[in-house]
Amino acid sequence: MKKFILYFTFLAAATVPMLAQGPTAGSMSGQILGSDGKPLPDATVVLERNGTEAKSINTSADGRFTVDSLPPGEYTVVLVSRGKRLQTSKRVVIEAGAANKFSLDFADSQSVAAGSGEIVIAASAPTIQLDSAQVARAYDTNTVRSLPLLDRQYQQLIGLMPGVTPPEISEDRVQDPQARRTFHVNGLSSSANAYFQDGSYQVEPFSGQPSRIAPNESIQQMNVRTSNYNAEHGYAAGSWTNTVTRPGTNGLHGSAFGLNTNRYFVARNPLNSSTGNPGFNRNQFGGSVGGPIIANKTFVFGAYEGLIRRGEVLQLLSVPTADFRAGNFSSLSNGGVFNPASGSAIGAGRMPFPGGRIPVTSLNATSQAILAGLPLPNQPGQANNLVGGARLLEDNHRFDGKLDHRFSERSTGFFRYGFTQGSVDRGSLLGVLGDAAQSDLRNHNAVARLTQSFTNNLAGEFRAGFSRYRNLLQVGGNSSLLNQNLAAQGFSGGLPQINIAGFGSFGLPGNYPSKQVNNTFDFATNWNWHNGMHHLKFGAQLVAFRTSGFDAGAFSPRGTFNFGAGGTSEVDPIG
What we know:
The protein is mainly beta. The chain has helices spanning 109-113, 141-146, 322-325, 365-372, 480-488; strands at 2-12, 18-21, 25-31, 44-49, 52-58, 64-70, 73-81, 84-94, 102-106, 119-123, 135-140, 168-169, 181-182, 194-197, 200-201, 203-204, 209-210, 219-227, 240-245, 253-262, 280-294, 298-317, 386-408, 411-426, 437-453, 458-475, 497-500, 504-506, 514-531, 534-550, 560-563.
């Protein structure tokens, strides 16, 4: 399957807008004027980031300038006129794809002409957004890394947007070891959302979720759009989300964190009526480091996040009592049990078993073999009568590494590689007859980008990305004797899922075992052309999928058995 995206946008503005340069960068354009209203020609506008010069460009004869292909973040604006540096008193925040407005004014044109003075930058948030109808928000690195997010997952922030349902975590960690969030935007399906990382498309087609979740420490900015997109984002029906990774700088910097939660700091589950106390120990840790390889030219950045969980989770299940297993249903208050072999072919005139007891000769051998492997209740009653702790082991490791290089004043590029390894081992009180399962996740994501300013008016971006998602699902449990008994009954591939009204489910769905593999190839180019007050943007993106592996799903040869209430009741002859 392939996607081809072509967008074309024409913008005209008399203000000083910050305009999107593709999905991963921003640009700043405007005109330098003195307090006398006259343009300031032949000056140099320099944007510095963390003490490192990021971009510089000369103003034209009418004082206009455009700086393209800026990674998102905070910048200091410096004006160089006649060999003198005039530094601003405030910083500018560049947002990828945002449309913020800034005004540049000089308090004294004579002092500017003399080579001294200060640029004053004023920014305001207008009540009404006049330059774009899209609903968008950018979350910077401080927000992503500092807020107390549940399990440090940045997708949780998307729930702060208007029209977005609260993000939900999948309860099945085997199916989703990354704990990705599911949410709906403006009433649309969760599969209508589009996800990017550094501008590279990464939607995993099996679930419609992002194929990879990066560590929070590597996020420079997360951009979310939910409606009325500009042309380059308009092919997503739900939301459009792009995460931009952090670069290295001239200064060596880093971070480290660690979180621990265990059963000694957690209240006892009120549903746990057993004497056992399930073990629980969860550690989440990581950090980041970045710095220069060659000052002002080549930079490196890396981030890692790990999650290790050991212990048990409480399970409250319903299993048949000893009387039920022996065919004794005399304790039922809703009537007797009818003999399905009696009566007509459609069930009319069925006869109840005497005393509500099924004779041993009428008990099914396969069901007896399955019942022999189920534990007996440890709590009173016919429902919710088995409680205890089931093993849950999780290992999740995420890494991102990024190399930025400045080829020249007009050419920059980067290469980033991310890897995720995750495994989940989930046990069950029912062993192989329950939902015991294992998963083994391997994710790769790589992006390379080159930006080139060909002239003061024309800039281009070239980008290539690759994403690979692989999750191997296997049946858990380790009872060789019980497996032999199941194989003797024709269940060599494990117990099919059996759904019984009043008792819940036994066994696993038909997609166990399965191996989900998806490869995504992404190629894109974006172009910006400026001519005075006019700004022309155009570009194209090609996305190709290659899906392999195996997933039987609903067509699994193991099948599924459903038993509703009243399966052996007498058929109403009138109905």
